[in-house]
């Protein structure tokens, strides 16, 4: 039986997801248990799969192989982390979820939309986010931020500007197609201002 609240944060590289997730967690903590997690990853098995996805040669996986790896990780994450937390009544904050597969492997990598839709239906089932915050900003700005951050997990960052433009368009299309679940946040602003925009969206949903 599900009692908690499931919020995902989405957007391109360097959009500020990880930064804002921490701030949102701090704001929500007075309301009860908050579980901060991420994809790919979020459980020991899924973190092991993450290493295969975010490091190494940019063309390491075909779009379909990459989709299946993402979904193997996602299933483990759902079973071991997300569902138990929601059953406890926790608020789950997830840095990326299935919209990133639609965008990165679907729109970006051209994995078949029918495959991705089938995986969403049969692997995610009803463990869908109650609210998805989509952080939007110009691709160049986000990539510059991500490059300045410098991490050893840059496989997706290396995919080129056209790829990242397709991602942005895909996230905008998702926000437009599913307004009941998704809120588009203009993330091209200072950290405090973006935090305030996110909090307004979350408070409206909590009310
Ligand atoms: N609103 C902002 N303005 C300027 N820099 C930011 C902003 N939000 C985040 N950053 C910085 O940009 C980089 C990428 O942010 P991060 O939260 O890691 O993005 P993401 O998780 O979406 O890839 C980090 O170095 C972070 O400190
Ligand atoms: Mg991040």
TrEMBL record:
GO terms for biological process: dTDP biosynthetic process; dTTP biosynthetic process; dUDP biosynthetic process. It is an enzyme of class 2 (transferase). SUPFAM superfamilies: P-loop containing nucleoside triphosphate hydrolases (SSF52540). Its EC number is 2.7.4.9. One of its GO terms (cellular component) is cytosol. It catalyses: dTMP + ATP = dTDP + ADP. One of its GO terms (molecular function) is dTMP kinase activity. InterPro entries: P-loop_NTPase, Thymidylate_kin-like_dom, Thymidylate_kin_CS, Thymidylate_kinase. ATP binds at residues 11-18. Pfam families: Thymidylate_kin (PF02223). Keywords: ATP-binding, Kinase, Nucleotide biosynthesis, Nucleotide-binding, Transferase. Residues 9-198 form the Thymidylate kinase-like domain. Phosphorylation of dTMP to form dTDP in both de novo and salvage pathways of dTTP synthesis. Belongs to the thymidylate kinase family. This is Thymidylate kinase.
């Amino acid at each position: 039986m599900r009692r908690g609240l499931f919020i995902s944060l989405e957007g391109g590289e360097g959009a500020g997801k990880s930064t804002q997730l921490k701030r949102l967690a701090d704001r929500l903590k007075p309301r009860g248990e908050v579980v901060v997690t991420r994809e790919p990853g979020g459980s020991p098995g899924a973190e092991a799969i993450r290493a295969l996805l975010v490091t190494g040669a940019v063309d390491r996986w075909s779009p379909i192989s990459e989709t299946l790896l993402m979904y193997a990780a996602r299933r483990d994450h759902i079973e071991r982390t997300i569902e138990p937390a929601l059953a406890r009544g926790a608020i789950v904050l997830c840095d990326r979820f299935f919209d990133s597969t639609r965008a990165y492997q679907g729109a970006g990598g051209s994995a078949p939309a029918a495959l991705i839709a089938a995986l969403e239906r049969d692997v995610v089932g009803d463990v869908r986010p109650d609210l998805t915050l989509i952080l939007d900003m110009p691709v160049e700005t986000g990539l510059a931020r991500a490059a300045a951050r410098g991490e050893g997990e840059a496989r997706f960052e290396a995919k080129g500007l056209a790829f990242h433009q397709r991602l942005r368009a895909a996230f905008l299309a998702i926000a437009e197609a599913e307004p009941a679940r998704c809120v588009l946040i203009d993330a091209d602003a200072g950290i405090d201002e973006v935090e305030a925009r996110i909090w307004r969206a979350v408070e409206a949903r909590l009310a």
